[in-house]
Amino acid sequence: MIEPLLHDVHSTMHVLMVMPDATSPLLCLEMMVLKEKLLSLSTVQCHLCTDAKHAVTLALACNPSIIFQDMHMQGAHGLDMLRSYQKHSFLKNIPVVMVDMRKHTWLRRYAFGAGAWDCISQAMSYQECLAKIQYAHRYVSLQQTNEHLSQVLRENERHLQQCESQLQHATSLDGLTALPSRHHFMATYEREWRRALRETDALSLLLIDIDYFKVYNDTYGYQEGDQCLRKVGCMIPDLLQRSTDFCGRYAGAAFVILLPMTPAKGAIQVAERVRNAVHGLQIPHQKSPVSDCVTVSVGLVTTCPMLKHQTRDMVRKVERACFDAKQQGRDRLVCKSL
After folding, report:
1. 167 located within any domain
2. Domain boundary pick from 147, 170, 193
3. Are residues 122 and 11 in the same domain?
4. Which of 90, 98, 92 is nearest to 73 (CA)?
5. Can you tell me whether residue 64 is helix, strand or coil?
6. Is 71 in contact with 98 (CB distance < 8 Å)?
């Protein structure tokens, strides 16, 4: 019943027998006959090691499914050999059967405690040996499969993390202007709001909206409209002077600038710099009632956040300031405080 089952295993099963010499108890008790029987099977390949110094090297070379280790060897105790196998990552999961024909119970206890897979103190039958080899081979195969699947899982997790990082990066940028998106702005704004509240710092917020942009699209087409947005969007970050200053696309033809630790005077300078720079682009806008080139209206709010304020209050106020700038004739700045 054993041999047919054994032949179902497609890969070769390597068996390492570590024994001192021809007078070893392991050999005297039918092991040589057993080895000859194993050699007759095409699915089993036996490797014999009689020198403890070469056991680990041979084990690494033949990648055994099971190791039969004599407990008593010249120059090295069997338990020392067991620990030597376990030091190597490629051998630590290989089942090791400790053979002690002297039937030392205390040695068997230490062997199991040191990680031995099994201990035998009498000669094995051919069928019993084959069963141990077959079971060990399946065990090692499952261990290797599990390790491979774990590695694949780790690689897939790393790939997933990379994809999530790329997705997060993609969603944090506006696809048209390559500026930070509104979602990114809100996250930055809330973080800076909490910092300013904690440190009692001034915080300034600017909303910049291109004047008569719908008319611009109707006059020149949507492709030219997108190009106009790109030109204005690419120009604004160059006007900011600190690494803490933030610029992003807010919505439609509107851009936002967040200036941490900036009082009203400094924010007004930035706002006027932006207005003048947009004039300097000289983007034609023939149908604009206020200028023959593209202009912007700017709303500005400066505050020192307090506990009675909500984060959305400043955003609503700057939207109102930008709306008032348009109502008052466009191409201008309207400042408000919270």
Report:
1. no
2. 147
3. yes
4. 98
5. coil
6. yes
Structural domain containing residue 115: 2-147
Does any domain span residue 13? yes
Q: Output the domain CATH number for residue 208.
A: 3.30.70.270
Q: What are phi and psi of 254, to 5 degrees?
A: -110, 140
Q: How many degrees, rounded to 5, is the angle at CA 92 between CA 73 and CA 22?
A: 25
Q: Sign of the C-alpha dihedral, residues 46, 52, 54, 59?
A: positive
In angstroms, the CA 217 to CA 228 distance is 10
CATH code assigned at 121: 3.40.50.2300
Could you read off the pLDDT of 300-319 as tens digits, one per residue? Answer: 999 999 888 888 999 999 99
Going by the DSSP 8-state scheme, the letter that residue 338 receives in this structure is -
Q: Cβ neighbours of residue 115 under 8 Å, at least 6 residues apart?
A: 82, 86, 96
The residues facing 99 across adjacent strands are 70, 120
For 134, residues 6+ apart whose C-beta sits below 8 A from its C-beta are 2, 5, 6, 9, 13
How many distinct structural domains can be found in the chain? Answer: 2
Distance of CA 261 to the CA centre of its chain: 35
pLDDT single digits (tens) 32-72: 556 666 666 667 777 888 888 888 888 888 888 888 888 77
- Do the Cβ atoms of 338 and 317 come closer than 8 Å? yes
**Would you state the torsion angle of the CA atoms of residues 325, 326, 330, 334, taken in this order, to the nearest 10 degrees?**
0
Sequence length of the chain is: 338
